[in-house]
Amino acid sequence: MTLEFSCNGTKVRVDAEPGMRALDLIRDVLGLTGTKEGCGRGECGACTILVDGASVNACLLYAAKLDGKQVLTIEGMATGAGSAATGLHPLQGAFLDEGAVQCGFCTPGMILSAKALLDRNPDPSAAQIEEALSGNFCRCTGYGKIINAIRTVAKNNSRPK
To answer: For position 81, what pLDDT does the model report?
Structure first.
């Protein structure tokens, strides 16, 4: 079947096998390897992508469900939205600045879940951040630095300009 959707701001038209997962389409067909397969059961969040702004486990989503949608992967985060000096999205920069990255395997999913949260709630509480990240697991850093990174971005976004 042929699918047409926007991925990281670019219209794509791809052929997909019936029953193909969105994760496999993104990684194997589009070559966007920032989306990781951790558990393959929707429990770890390593495969998190945004579909029409909502955080979704790509391992549980049929590729056909992407047809006509807006998809964002970690590769699309820095495009036109980040600091001119680094090219990174503010969330990516904050994760680095706060030391919220160790091995990096979970980081793309964490950042995308955080983006979905901040897009709908620009000034979340620590409890709201924890809830938004409840489907993402990190085995290296713990969550304190991750929450601090997200709170830093929220504080910077809520300051008067």
So the answer is: 46
